[in-house]
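Hi U.,

Before I forget, here's the chain from the pilot set. I'm dumping it here mostly so it's searchable later in email.
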Amino acid sequence: MEDAVQTRFSLKPVVAAISVVLGSTAFAAPTPNQMPGAGIVVAVSPGATTSYGGVGSPITGLVSVGAIGIGIGVNPRVVIQWGGAGAPVDPTNPAGFNLGANARLIFTSAMPGGAVLNIDASGSASQIFGKLESNTAIGFAPALYVANGNGIVVGAGGQIAAPSGIGLIGADLNNATAKYDFVGNNSSGKSYIDVTGGQSTVTVNGAINGSLTANLPATYILLAGGDIVNSDSGNQFAGTAIAIAGLRATNATDTVNGVAGTTVNRLVEVSGTTLGGLGSFNIGTLPGNWEIASAGSTVVNTGSISAPGAIALFAANGIRSGTAGDSNVLVGLFADAGIVTATYTSGAKTELYNVISGYTTNKALGLLYVNAPYATATGDVLINALTPGSQPSSISTTTFAIINGENVTINSTINHATNPTESVLQVTSTKSLTITAAVGGGGFVALSNSGAGGMSIGGNVVADTNKNSSGGIVISNSGKNAPTTISGNLTSYGDDI
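Structure:
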C-alpha cells in the first residue's frame, strides 16, 4: 500500500500565490507569518477548558515559532470564534482564521474524544496557506473543524493534518445552536455539526491527511458548503472522505443549552474519532431527506481523493470528477470499500471521467452507487472512467454497481466478477439509456429505461460468469413509443436472458 500512496498521492508542487479567488471575490493571501487573530472561547463541553482559559477567554498574539509553530490545548470539545462581535482586539494578527505560508498551528487535547470548532466570523474567507495540525505529541489529537460562511481556501502549499478527523464547513456556524450542539450541550450529550443558513465555497488546493510527517490517512475528511472544489493540486487522504455541496439535513428539534424545541439541522455527529453513520452513509438524516440549502451547488474534483474506506459525494446540482479528455491517471477517486454519489435536482449531472478504482494498488473498487440507493436522488449520469495506466476505460467492482439517473450514458467497461454471490450490475434510467462499452460480470445484470428516449446498447453484455444459478440478464424498456436498439452481444452463463 505504501507504494500506492507514493505513486498516487504524493504532494503536488507548491504554487506561489499572490491572491486567491473565491467565487467572484478576490482576497489577498495572508502574509507569510500570519496566524489566526482576535480569538475568543465561546463554548466548551461540560468541565472543558482551553490552555487559554474557559468561556470568554481571549486568544490573541499568536506567533508561530519557526518550524515548531505554536500550540493550543482543548479539553475535550471547544468552540473558538475568530473575529466578529465580541472578539478581542488583537495587535498581532488580523481578525479571522488564516495561516500564512510559514505559519504552523497545532491543537492538542489532554483527553480522548476531543474536537475543536474554529468559527471565522471576520467577514472574509478563511485562507490556510501554512500548516494546521492536531497531533499526539502531548496527549491526544482532537478532530479539527473550520467553519466560515464566507468560504474556506486551503492554499497550494497548505497542509491540514489531524488523525482523528477534519471538517471544513463553508457555512455560518456563528450562532448559539451550532456552538452548543458542537460541544454536546444538548439532551444527548453528543456533538453535532448543525448547519442552517446559506453556504459558501470550500476549495482545496493543498494536502489534507492525518499527519504532517507521515503519509497517513485522517480518520475522516468532511467538506461541506456550497460549491466544493478539490483542484488539480488538491490531495485528500482519509479513511472516509465525504463532500456535501448545497445540502443540509432536514429540520429536527431538541433541547439545546436548556431550551426545549430548538430547531436543529444536524449534518453529522462528531465524536472526536468517528463521524456518525458513515458505515451506512446515514449522515445526519438519510441523504434522501436532504434539504436544498444552496441550489446549483456542485462537487468538482480534478485532483486526488483517496480512502482505504469509502468516498461519498453528495450535491444539490452536480458532481464532476476529472475533466473530459484528460487522461491523467493520477487524478481520481480511489476507495477500497466503495464510492457513493448522489445529486438532488432534476437536470443535475454526474460526470466521472478519471480513475474510479480501489485505493490499494491492483485492488478493485468495493462498490459503486450512483444516485442509489437514495430514492430522491436524480439527474443525468455520464461515466467515462479511466483505467490506471492503460486504456480502454473501465471500472471493476467486487460487489455492486448500481446506477440510477435520468439520461444515463456509460462509456466505460464495468466488470464485477470477483464476488460469486453478490456481483450485481443494475442500471436504471427514467429518460434514456445509452451503453457503448462492455458491461457485466459474475452475477445478475439488469438494464431498464422508462423514458421516451429509449435504450441503445452497443456494447456486449455478459452475466453470471461465476456460473451460479442466480445470474442472468434482464433488459426492460417501458418508455412510451421509446426505441430499443441492441447491437452488442448478450451472453448469460446462468439463467435465461
